[in-house]
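Honest question from a wet-lab person: if I give you the sequences of every part of a complex, can you actually get the arrangement of the whole thing, not just the pieces? Trying it with mine:
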Amino acid sequence: MFGFILRRLGLLIPTFIGVSLVAFFFIRLLPGDPVLLLAGERGISPERYAELMHRFGFDLPLWKQFIYYFGDLMHGDFGTSISTKKPIFTEFFTLFPATLELSICAVIFAVVLGVPAGVIAAVKRNSWFDHTAMATALVGYSMPIFWWALLLIIVFSGTLGWTPVSGRISLMFFFPKVTGFMLIDSLLSGKAGAFQSAASHLILPTIVLGTIPLAVIARQTRSAMLEVLGEDYIRTARAKGLSPFRVVAVHALRNALIPVITTIGLQIGVLMAGAILTETIFSWPGVGKWMVDSIFRRDYPAVQGGLVLIALIVMGVNLVVDMLYGLVNPKIRHQR
Amino acid sequence: MPILEISNLSVDFRTVGGQFRAVDGVSMAVEPGEIVSIVGESGSGKSVSMLALMGLLPWTATITADRMMFDGRDLLTISPRERRRIIGNDLAMIFQEPMSSLNPCYTVGWQIGEVLKVHLGLNKRARRDRTVELLELVGIPSAAERLDTFPHQMSGGMNQRVMIAMAIACNPKLLIADEPTTALDVTIQAQILDLLAKLQRETGMALVLITHDMGVVAETANRVSVQYAGQKVEEQPVSELFADPHHPYTAALLSALPERATTRRLPSIAGVVPGQYDRPAGCLFSPRCSFVTERCVDKAPVTQGEAAGYALCHYPLSHGKPVGHPGPAAILDRRLSA
Ligand SMILES: Nc1ncnc2c1ncn2[C@@H]1O[C@H](COP(=O)(O)OP(=O)(O)O)[C@@H](O)[C@H]1O
Ligand code: SF4
Ligand SMILES: [Mg+2]
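Yes, you can. This is the full assembly:
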């Protein structure tokens, strides 16, 4: 297991270099000038422009800029935002809890609904439940996030007025940040109604962000379950006189979850991409929205640093998922 | 009174190609403490008939029988819940593929303990003690240390021993062993069979042994039932069957068996067991039988009496001679035309 982790960490190095390269060149490929955008509509004198270009190092040749940027990365310096003048690292991790909270809620939403739906669909194969659930999953998977979010907003926020449209909590509530997780902080604040407000703000973004993972997990669970239910050891479990529930929940599910966990791990990257859209639509103050804003400002350091940080997090999560995989699958655990 | 009594059992599968009769009117009775062997080539319905008894067939199967009694219980009318109290407890079964028959996610100790918990309600401590005892009983060395091993960490032979330990955990009255050694190395096969025979002797349970191995039949069984294409074609006590087979299929099996066999597997007879799409009209063995006549092709035979080994044949053999057969001239050479 230890050797396995080391090997996986070794694999991260080329990935890390690749991501830094892509992040660096991606933002510079976009037309637009960070300093001009920073100056805004008031305009800027040529002297001031040259001075700023020099201060940010944008006057250097591209390869030199990259060397400096990469050298800083190696020292754990992710750069400084040119629009807020704050270190990217601080900026990122101030906003990250909001993204994490939303992502965790979305994953929980997807797993809690997707796994049971997949299991029931497999056990009651070809039933109306199976057909309905799988058709719904296909629709959920193919639906554009933007459109789906707007539809939910129109129905639940507009017509029904049940849920707020944007933000993390009502502006009425103000309390110190402790964990950065609004659900927890609102509880800690002891203010009446704060938690309810935070929770109601989470509902629609969670559904929007969790829909694609939910569809993927439901379909994957169903197919894994169908395969497992045909295995010899399931016949053995039934031959032992176990109840159908025990056969499914204890003997089949554990085996079916092995591929499902991999799927969930792979969904983390998809989730990050989805978070960018979802946060923008719901004005959710997380790193996704911050990335989009930074791209619009052509804040080169913020975009490249942010992308590298996101990539590091996705890689870290995948590593954890792989270890989790070893925990549920004894075969893997002993190979390593 | 027999512990198991099956009369006229048929199993039909609903398949994309229509109904398929995998088991066709099979009857058998097993007395307490008796070893009955079922032999027959692959696809003869041996497994399906026993799975029908256990209630382990998929929903595509339709089971019909005149009688299916186990230990005074009617398995035809029993509720699923009642049946679950019997199987794994008084009626247990082990399978052909030990490597895939155990759950890869749980330790062998846990999997054996589960039966003890579900059927006997033993507590954790008692389960552990009994599991170690069972593992010792099936000849697994340093049993206590094996409790926490996973199936993939052990050999096929060891896994089959675990399966046997699990099956006998509740002292079953009848154990069904479905080709328990077919998937194992030759050297291990004998060990597993010796183990089954030993456990049968010591516990006095009845044993239904499905096998390909005529040598095993001769050594272990009291009685033999020969199955072909879903039908029981002959049934005799073992010594009588070897001395005087009454069905041409049995005779062919035995005559193809070399005197000092290098392989003790079921010898091969030209042709294969008919499947779903090539079932002959009359006698199912007619395409491969060396006594086949016009009558065999046209009309399905009926089961003969006990004296003729319940042979399902128009001309049951008596010391190698087909009784009532019209003579060599009437024999069709179907094997050439087929
Ligand atoms: N679930 C099933 N659906 C359709 N046909 C089946 C099924 N299980 C077994 N059969 C068919 O029933 C016949 C008997 O199978 P089986 O009892 O496994 O033979 P064997 O004597 O080798 O144990 C075979 O032709 C097999 O293809
Ligand atoms: S009925 Fe005819 S074909 Fe069938 S086994 Fe007897 S002799 Fe052979
Ligand atoms: Mg079989």
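Two things worth pointing out. Residues 96-169 of chain B form one domain. Chain B has three domains: 1-90+174-183+201-243, 96-169, 250-337.
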